[in-house]
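Sequence in, structure out. Go.
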Amino acid sequence: MGVKFAAAMGAEVTVFSTSPTKEQNARDLGANDFVVTKNSENLQPLAGKFDFILDTVSAAHDLNAYLNLLGLNGVMVIVGAPAKPAEIAAFSLIPNNRTLAGSGIGGIRETQEMLDYCFEHNIVSEIEMIPIQSIEEAYERTIKADVRYRFVIDMQSLR
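Output:
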């Protein structure tokens, strides 16, 4: 959803992923660029390039590598929640007056603004609809990280 929102707001969007197979999906969602992060050399030419980074990753990863991609007064906002605390090097923040922040989902007013914006710009969630009878299979696929975006249970299947 972050890619869709940023693209709708006119931002130049770059998606970072460990998986090159996600590039077409990222571009379909509105990304202009795609960077595979498995190889740290791919990040080096991007140092200082970004104004804003939205970090949605809930797995352990090196935040410093991404903080170093921010330019002057750049901001990185974390919405993913890795299980282990991150180690932040002071010099990932200090040189360019960078900011690291976190964000929750917001209150009722913010949620309504987001829904109104989605309606106005035809932004919809990418989901995979499943019948309740497939819940075990969906759980197994979740464990294997074989889910594209979110499962949604078709309530009609409860009958």
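Check: The chain has six helices and seven strands. The longest strand covers residues 70-78.
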